[in-house]
Write a structure and sequence with these properties.
- By secondary structure, this protein is α/β, with parallel strands linked by helices.
- The protein folds into three domains: 114 residues, Nucleotidyltransferase, domain 5 (2-Layer Sandwich); 102 residues; 115 residues, no CATH class.
- It is built from 13 helices and seven strands.
- The protein has a five-stranded mixed beta sheet with strand order 3-2-1-4-5.
- A hairpin with a 3-residue loop joins strand 1 and strand 2.
- Helix 7 packs across helix 9 and helix 11 packs across helix 12.
- The longest helix is centred in the middle third of the chain and has 38 residues.
- The radius of gyration is 26 Å and the shape is globular.
- The two termini are 27 Å apart.
């Protein structure tokens, strides 16, 4: 347990402009002092002075949001040789009635760390940080492009007949190309002229977002190929899903076991038995982006990878539903990729296989 390894735990509730730090005695969970700091260099230095004053012995930092609001403080503390672990933010079930107290949240972070037997270390790999930025930005471009395409198709529906006849039932790429060629004249009716201008504007936006998305995808591919090329050799794994796996995993030792990796990915089995029939259900929690990557890989393998298709067929023949069989497959994939990333970062990957899943 953590209380046997350290004398003090410094819990941190992180926000955009301020962080609240609480010093807690590891043996008893008692609170010594709290401090609010700014999210600037001098604020981080004040946090370190606070720790040295109130927690002078063996200490560890338990911070929320080490990959977001707490990223700056985490990098500063690691550079100073401090030990840092990551703590999940509490789930707010009812935002309308839930009270918010930063000091209590900081204390809760420290006591949560004391109560757990295993802990996750913050993301600290430069490649993972770079991929996080690129994947997030690409995701925004994809979302904006999809919204623009939907808006353009909606305009086609209400466009004047002369435009609608030419543009309906076109693929997205063909529709964008044709809309970019549209021209306006002063002789056109006001409605047709305004719709034409709007369509051309949307088509230009879609083309720009498409190029942005492709540029970001090429850079993601370059980093993944240089960091973990063995992931791209896995069936069903593309550059984007490989990048998400690298982001979630970050570095060796971040997760104490493959079971913890699966739990955080929302791929661990949740007991849902009723009566004498033992069964499990899908986990709706965890890192949904990591879960999405595993789900995408599972779907791709189920259509293109014969061993995976045979495994799913066997599970279904045993009485599992399709959803339960996919859950088992995702649990296996979480185990497989954790071992692959943890133990063969630069070596030859283990053979691809579909084995027993739990």
């Amino acid at each position: 347990m953590l209380a046997d390894q350290v004398d003090y735990v410094l819990g941190g509730d992180t926000h955009r402009d301020e962080h609240t730090i609480a010093a807690v005695i590891a043996a008893t969970g008692g609170v010594i002092a709290t401090r609010t700091i700014t999210t600037k260099e001098r604020g981080y230095q004040a946090a370190l002075r606070f720790a040295r004053r109130h927690a002078p012995g063996r200490r560890i930092w338990a911070l929320e949001g080490t990959g977001s609001y707490g990223a700056g403080l985490t990098r500063f503390l690691l550079a100073q040789g401090e030990r840092v672990i990551e703590v999940d933010r509490p789930i707010k079930h009812d935002q309308r009635t839930a009270a918010k107290d930063d000091e209590l949240d900081a204390i809760r972070a420290a006591r949560t760390a004391l109560a757990r037997a295993k802990h996750a270390t913050p993301r600290s790999d430069p490649a993972a940080d770079a991929l996080t930025t690129l994947v997030t930005t690409r995701g925004g471009a994809v979302t904006a492009r999809t919204a623009a395409i939907n808006q353009l198709r909606a305009l086609v529906v209400v466009a004047p007949e002369t435009l609608r006849t030419k543009l309906r039932d076109r693929s997205a790429d063909d529709l964008v190309t044709r809309c970019l060629r549209l021209r306006t004249t002063t002789a056109q009716p006001a409605n047709q002229r305004s719709v034409t201008i709007a369509m051309r504007s949307l088509a230009t936006r879609i083309r720009t977002l498409t190029r942005e998305q492709q540029t970001l995808a090429r850079e993601i591919t370059r980093i993944v190929a240089g960091t973990a090329p063995f992931l791209l050799a896995e069936p069903g794994v593309g550059p984007i899903t490989a990048a998400q796996l690298l982001i979630s995993w970050s570095h060796p030792g971040r997760f104490a076991s493959e079971a913890r990796f699966a739990r955080i990915a929302g791929a661990a089995p949740i007991p849902a038995s009723s009566g004498l029939t033992p069964r499990y259900r899908l986990d709706r929690g965890g890192d949904r982006q990591r879960n999405r990557a595993l789900h995408t890989i599972a779907l791709s393998r189920s259509t293109r990878h014969p061993p995976t298709r045979a495994y799913l067929d066997r599970r279904i023949s045993e009485g599992k539903t399709r959803r339960e069989a996919v859950r088992l497959l995702k649990r296996y994939l979480a185990r497989h990729f954790w071992r692959l990333l943890e133990h063969t970062p630069t070596g030859t990957p283990p053979p691809i296989m579909i084995g027993p899943c739990s």
